[in-house]
Amino acid sequence: MAKKTATKKKKGSDSNTIALNRKARHDYTIEDQYEAGIVLEGWEVKSLRDGRAQLKESYVSVYKGEIYLLGAHFAPLASASTHVNPLPTRKRKLLLHAREINKLIGAAERDGYTIVPLSLYWQRGRAKLKIALAKGKKQYDKRQAAKQRDWDRQKHRLLKQ
After folding, report:
1. Are 132 and 24 in contact (CB under 8 A)?
2. Mean pLDDT of 17-38
């Protein structure tokens, strides 16, 4: 008889998403999206499993041909080991294929393009970060997007009736 193991999930969390950067889609026009692995320490993985991560103020930077996540806040657990000195906002290396890194570096050097983190999630037991090549929106672009979103909502209501 096979032994069944139940995975423990938090109440109300049906997806594998850990954290979202909602501000990124508001402030930037998304061009291309990539999935990157993250180099993490043990306490960070435990913190992610508990859902204690924020991508709100985070950004992606290129340094010496490698790509890093900066400003992401992973809150350490209270039950963390005493010999570990956790740094909640340390820089974390992102893992991508060399051709993806080269493409991102080339595009980020062009005028107006940047690399932004979109979401942090689990995939087959590993933490993944969805990053995007994006171009910054101007204030009038943001207003136009809001008007379009409102119009789409009204149109949907009218068609529903």
Report:
1. yes
2. 85
